[in-house]
Each structure stands twice: as structure tokens, then as C-alpha cells.
Amino acid sequence: MEAVEFNSFNQTVEHGNLRWARFEIVDGEIDYQNSFQTGTPRDGGGRDYYGTPENDILIGTAESDWFYASYGNDIIDGGGDAELDRLDYRGAYDLYSGSIVADLQAGQIIKSNGDVDTVSNIRRLIGSTEDDVIYGSDRTDAWESFSGDRGNDYIDGQGGNDYIWYGRAPE
Ligand SMILES: [Ca+2]
Ligand SMILES: [Ca+2]
Ligand SMILES: [Ca+2]
To answer: Within a 10 A sphere around the Cβ of 89, how many other Cβ atoms?
Structure first.
């Protein structure tokens, strides 16, 4: 991220798809606390959301969005609960590297560096390139789908009808 000028706490900035950021002064240094992103449009509807190394709040649209996981303690909300929102821990754009322990029923995904994502309205979860543990939710009104990607993964869809997709596992 490029530097942005600011001169007060909690200032709103416009910077590409980063719509707001909250800054605080900690020990005389700027502590970049949160980003709130508006995402970039996807072909066919919905938006792409790329996190930052810091704590992000990513709120999707009522269409099918794609969230690329990143380091930090992030809040990720797919938006609506009916469409297929996807959360991807494969480490696109070097935003994340490591395994996950995911529980969609609890709405919590623990990353191997200790950071924790709080997630809701995610119906398709794509694991990391390492060894993951993935539990789905008990929702029965819509299917969920999971893929472990590389590594030795443990996947339990829990209640409801769920799909496990191996199409993305590379050879
Ligand atoms: Ca959505
Ligand atoms: Ca982040
Ligand atoms: Ca994996």
C-alpha cells in the first residue's frame, strides 16, 4: 500500500479499492488498524476482495464474491446468505502462507501463525496448500462446498448437504 496523507484519527481516505482506513498513533508511530474494502468487480457479478497484512473488515455484496485470505485478524462477511461466496486460503498474491483450522459453524478460522478470521455467509471454503482441518456448518437451507487444495487435509462438512471438490487439487 502506498502512503496516504492523514492528519487526524479515524480519517476516511479514498485509495483505490481501499475505501476507509483507521489509523491510530502508538508510541509516536502510525499504527494501521483496519481496512474496509469495497472490492473490485468480478466478471459475472460480485466482487473480489483482497486483504492486507493488517486487520481487515471485508463485507461482500448480495452477489457471489471471492475473498482472498490474508494475514491479520480479519472479519469476512460474504454479504447475503443465499449466494455462493468463496473464501480462498491458497495464498494468492502472497497475502497468506500457512495452514488453517476452520469451523464455519463457529465462524472462526485459525491461521497457523495464530491470527484468527471471523467469518460469516461463506459457502465455499478453499483450504491452503498445507495440511488443513476444515469443519463446515450445520446449515441445511443451502449446500456448502470445500476443497483442501494441497496437503493432507481433514474435511468434515457437518450437517446439511455438502460437497467436497477435488477439482482444484494440483497434480
Ligand atoms: Ca456475497
Ligand atoms: Ca488481513
Ligand atoms: Ca490444504
So the answer is: 28
Q: What is the pTM of this model?
A: 0.81
In DSSP notation, 100-165 reads EEEETTTTEEEETTS-EEEEES--EEE--SS--EEE-----SS-EEEE--SS--EEE--SS-EEE-
Minimum-distance ligand to the CA of 47?
1
In single-letter form, the type of residue at position 8 comes to: S
- What pLDDT, on a 0 to 100 scale, did the predictor assign at position 116? 97
Q: CA–CA separation, 69 vs 73, rounded Å?
A: 10
Three cell numbers written together for 5: 496523507
Q: How far is CA 31 from CA 69, 70, 96, 116, 129, in A?
A: 21, 18, 21, 19, 31
What average pLDDT does the structure give for the chain?
A: 84
Instruction: Identify the DSSP state of 15.
Output: B
The tens digit of pLDDT for each residue in 113-162 reads 999 999 999 999 999 999 999 999 999 999 999 999 999 999 999 998 88
Surrounding residues of ion ligand 1, Cβ less than 5 A? 60, 65, 78-79, 85
